[in-house]
Specification:
five-stranded mixed β-sheet, 14 helices, 3 domains, Ubiquitin-like (UB roll), alpha+beta, 7 strands, two-stranded antiparallel ribbon
Amino acid sequence: MTVSSDQHIEGKRDVTFRVFRLNPQVDSKPYFDDYTIPVERGITVLRALNYIKENIDASVSYRVFCQAGICGSCGMRINGISKLACTTQVWDELPKCREAGIIRIEPLRNLPLLKDLIVDMDPLVGKMKHYSNWVVSTMEESEMGRKEFLVSEEEFSRYDKATDCILCASCVSECSILRANKEYVSPAVLLKSHRMNVDSRDGLHDVRLAELVQDHGVWDCTHCYRCQETCVKSIPIMDAIHGIREDAIESRGMKDTAGAKHAEAFMSDIEKKGKLVEATLPFRTNGVAWTVKNLLPMAVKMILKRRTPPPPPLVKASKGMKKFREEFREMSEHVKEDHKTHKK
């Protein structure tokens, strides 16, 4: 499907958009359609899709609303990365194409597909409901409407960035854990949860935190940083995830969940030897019974392939450990002081 242009006009050229297509009601499997159209410099991917829909193929389906990077509706994968189509310049994408002059457009990952580039946001909304991603005011109901419930600028600065989230689901699409476990809480929900938990006006902190530390919760994050790297609003999502973990350890203790125990064992190994004692890490994290029941088959395979980690006595401390321990303890003290400052 082609609409040609004069290739010699400066700032204008033909570009092919390879668009993912699937209508579950009629298609047995997904496929791609190529649309070659004339594009001027300064045109966004969304405007190109609008041109295709209005002039070539009206059946191409995608979400769009504000067209200004505000609503988050037009999230999709462009050349393999989750972005907003309305803020992504065609000219910026051309050097990133795997095939010269062909921009690949696909739906977001980790959410059910409805049609073409449209995904179902209901699972994400369901998780937001489960983890209570809203403020439950501590103000007496009789006082509501009579006065403002103010917060200081210092407090607001702690979650200011989180309020920029427009729920475009780009972070959800890029999350490596969600690709393996659809039940995982998701970066977007963790960000919203952190925003609520650090708000002094909220009364659900403990209830929310209790849910976040359970299975499929905050401890399942693998620190791949894909959510933060691809956030269309440049929100430091990992800071929020770290904040929830620190809050959980401080509020609930190091023995509260497997995730907290794992963090404690990890830090203990680093402080003592500068490296992990991997052979005993599962036992210290989940206990002997759980480890034997769930990891024994994998351990046998690792033994047969000679891929097992060395036993604890053979794990030697890293060089320069004396100086490292001093710096490690100094850093730990700084972290404790920071926590005290934030609490004030």
